[in-house]
Amino acid sequence: MSDSEWLADVAAHGMIRPSFVPPPPIRELRELTRYRKTQIDARAAEVQRLEKVLQDAGIKLTSVASKVLTQSGRAMVEALIAGERDGARLAELAKGKMRPKMLALAEALSGHFGSHHAVACERILGHLDFLDASIAALTEQIDQRTAAFAQVYASLLAVPGLDRLTIDVIIAETGADMTRFPTPRDLASWVGVCPGSHESAGKRRRVGTTGGNQWLRRALIESARAAARTKRSYFGAQYRQIAHRRGPNKAAIAVAHSLIELVWHLLSTGEVYNDLGEEYFTNRQDPERRARRLVAQLEELGFTVTLQAAPATAA
Fold first, then answer.
1. Is the whole-model pTM more than 0.85?
2. Domain check: are 224 and 255 in the same one?
3. Residue 251, CA distances (Å) to 20, 190, 240, 242, 256 in order
4. Rounded Cα–Cα distance for residues 227 and 235 (Å)
5. Looking at the domain assignment, is residue 236 inside a domain?
């Protein structure tokens, strides 16, 4: 099967036919998405390094601003590198929503920024600019190679937590070919978001998760944490319910598991995503059991509760 035949097949069906090993275009896409991820990680490390240098210099910018490298933050760091040391003058560089915080900024920017700090910050900013250009160039190449998967993006972008970067990874690692996986659980196991088990002397116990595709697993866990922050969504409710009992990490794995199973269903059936809503878990509970739990919570607060059934409303 030639590359042109493969592209025509993708354009016609939106996925790779199951009888073929992923062809060169998908392998090339995989190399690009993986390399882009290493560049994104390197950029995040450089931002952390910049913040560490500023903290060492007594510049507490992140105690006032949410991030170091906002437009205002970048301008202040560049002014520090250029030799400005007056906190009030540096605070004058604030823009937009940072303007009302100028007094706090002036105090936060009054440190002991030295010449060696300036050298380090200048090199870090230069490296960040290089990484930004590298990530942008890689993204342009990836976008060109995924143009045939427009239907896949249209289907998956409606899912909370799944952005274009994550969908790039899904396509690169699976080829968007769900026929390779007989069931959604097979795909989840291949990714590495299924519960593992250990058996010895006839006894079985759970041990974390199974091994799997580290690139897709990591992308899905990041998406799960993003989905957890969405309001009034099924995945947000699922995350909060599990995190309350078992902690945030296990909750993120559970949501990642749900996300990849949903991906399997959407790409296998062509159905449109329909969020079940945050009320899903509440509505499925037994009313009597839920009432007992709520009464117990009120009694813990020192209240005496008497339950009385509400009169039936006329139809």
1. no
2. yes
3. 36, 19, 8, 5, 9
4. 6
5. yes
